[in-house]
Amino acid sequence: MLDWPTPKLKSLPPLSLYVHFPWCLKKCPYCDFNSHELRTDESRVPEEEYVATLIRDLEFALQDVWGRRLSSVFLGGGTPSLFSAEAMDAVLTAVRTLLPLEHFAEVTLEANPGTFEAQKFADFRRAGINRLSIGIQSFNPRHLKAIGRVHDDQEAHRAVDIALKYFDNINLDLMYALPGQTLEHAQADIEAACACGVTHISAYHLTLEPNTLFYRFPPKLPDDEAAAAMQDMIEQTTSDHQYRNYETSAFARAGKESRHNVNYWLFGDYVGIGAGAHSKISFADKIVRQMRYKQPKEYLAKARMGGSLIQVQQELTVADRSFEFMMNALRLTGGFDTPLFQERTGLPIAVVQQQLDEAEQRGLLAHDHLRIKPTVLGRRFLNDLLQIFLPENTSSDNALKSLP
């Protein structure tokens, strides 16, 4: 059998930066993110040491992305807004020094109600943050309590009011299919979010993830039929308020889509720094994924010892490339330009032609030489659509070898 060359990329995709801040006031019972509740013996986060380690982490990452510019930065968590504006300014100053930002780059900070102080958020804006993502989840005090949030409805509204004073690009995170939630409750939440006049709304279906308190002690949730009705209602309500449903769970005013997230969906590159952060970095002849040490104490300890902060690194196989591209890009309601598949994976679209045809025959996908996108049915049954492209169902390596 002939040795076939590794697929080559003719150009590198856009590059984003994700910075992880792993601490929060309280661990929510549904949350499976790498977030760690501040213990009673910790009066505050170890801000100075953590910021210094983030900068060291970024300096080390330069060897993989030297000379590239950042299209977006996302400061996520946890609750990054537990950190001071001075800390954010130090991180962003280092970023601008080491990896220049494109003009008008999107710089997003995640924040939770309960951490909002007017002066602090004015200072965040001056530090260069130009987009906020606020974890509201619900405006209903009973549902906030049921999902373990530390804020109430009044703090949620106050957070939005403060944000609107200093930022003109704001996302609100909401959840639906909550314990005890009815269709009317969900509609009140999405109507309240739309009435705020923010530029972006994310609405996520509450799911019971392994390694969470809710998974071990599951609450009674609305059934699938009720949840589907909520999803339909959310899509209609946001549309009525001029928000476009551009991604499975995301709704934006014209031109206000999350550029950082769209880069993820279109299989762009990103460097992730901070405890447990993930990276995806393309080179001409390979694509690699990395993960930093997950536990904050271990991450900081590795930095003190001068060791590598990367715990796991792996190179994507041909099958990984095609599946991961599809897994991300098919979340976009408008799909993607067909040539982008080869541009981002190095593989001809023919390697997944069989899967594309099957998805089209099942009514889940529409595709031609110009564009590939999920149908309305495909968006409703996204997991079924993605299942078709799973590596065990894909013969990408064999398909590649059969091409002229």
Helix content: 25-40%
Cα Rg: 22 Å
Rounded to the nearest angstrom, the distance between the terminal CA atoms is: 15 Å
Our count of domains comes out at: 2
Output the CATH class name of the largest domain. Answer: Alpha Beta
**Strands in their spatial order, largest beta sheet:** 9-10-8-7-6-5-4-1-11
Mean pLDDT: 93
By CATH, the topology of the largest domain is: TIM Barrel
The major pleated sheet works out as: 9 strands, mixed
Strand content: 15-25%
Query: Number of DSSP strands?
Result: 17
Work out the helix count: 16
Judging by the overall fold, what is the CATH architecture of the largest domain? Answer: Alpha-Beta Barrel
Shape: globular
Helix/sheet category:
alpha/beta
Catalogue the unreliable spans. Answer: 395-404
Index terms:
alpha/beta; three-stranded antiparallel beta sheet; disordered C terminus; globular; nine-stranded mixed beta sheet; TIM Barrel
Structure commentary:
There is one protein chain. The protein is α/β, with parallel strands linked by helices and 404 residues long. It is 39% helix and 22% strand. It folds into 2 domains: 15-263, Alpha-Beta Barrel (TIM Barrel), CATH 3.20.20.70; 318-403, Arc Repressor Mutant, subunit A, CATH 1.10.10.920. The chain has 16 helices and 17 strands. The strands form 4 sheets. A 9-stranded mixed beta sheet has the order 9-10-8-7-6-5-4-1-11, with helices on both faces. A 3-stranded antiparallel beta sheet has the order 12-13-14, with no helix packed on it. Helix 6 (183-195) runs parallel beside helix 8 (224-240). The protein starts with 14 loop residues before the first strand and ends with a helix.
